[in-house]
Amino acid sequence: MIDSAVADQADSDQPTRRALFSAGVIGAALAMAGSRSASAAANGLSEGDAALVGFAISLELTARDLYDAAIAAGATGQVWSVLREQHESYAQRLAGIAGIPGDIRNDEIFDALVSGFKGATRSAAFEFENVAAATHTELLGVVTDGAAAKSIASIIAIESRHATLLAELAGMADNYDALFHNTATALSPEA
């Protein structure tokens, strides 16, 4: 979750970081987009937006697969399958808007995080949901298509709620910074 009081404060390195993120996301995502851009352009998205949405889709599919890994490693309770299903549905929604396949996860991100999901599941999931919310927040600042932006904005709200729930499950219910302040760094396609 984002603390609006902190978000409103001027941050001297924010414009530089945001500009670098935007340039990196667009450049790398365009390279990843390949044939996706042509089909997305037919649905009205620019090549840049198609690449950004493609990256968002891959992040959501990565989340789905991380929750699958947690479940396979013995994470119990309905919450894990619900989180898994929600991330898969976000990928499908974005794919439908963009007109691109929703079938490719980000293997680099998955490989970097899967051991945490197989072990300290609750804290790893809490951290990931904050990273996902921060990443989508950055994407929201650069995507220009209205339908894609609305979908990404709704994903941010839900992933912030996921983080709050997971903080509670991880025993951080009395840590108000963890519950109400997202300090996670956004991912870029190079992450």
Describe the 3D structure.
The chain is mostly helical and 191 residues long. The chain is built from nine helices and no strands. Helix 7 (121-140) runs antiparallel to helix 8 (146-169). The protein is globular. Residues 1-40 have low confidence and may be disordered.
Descriptive tags:
single chain, 191 residues, mainly alpha, Ferritin, 9 helices, disordered N terminus
Anisotropy-based shape:
globular
Number of domains: 1
Instruction: Using the 3D structure, state the CATH architecture.
Output: Up-down Bundle
State Rg. 16 Å
Provide the helix percentage: over 70%
* Poorly predicted runs of 5 or more residues: 1-40
CATH superfamily: Ferritin, core subunit, four-helix bundle
Number of helices: 9
Count of distinct strands: 0
Structure class: mainly alpha
Tell me the name of the CATH class: Mainly Alpha
What's the overall average pLDDT, rounded? 77
Q: Would you give the CATH topology? A: Ferritin
Largest sheet: none
Strand content: under 5%
Distance between the termini: 21 Å
Q: What are the secondary-structure elements, in order, as H or E?
A: HHHHHHHHH
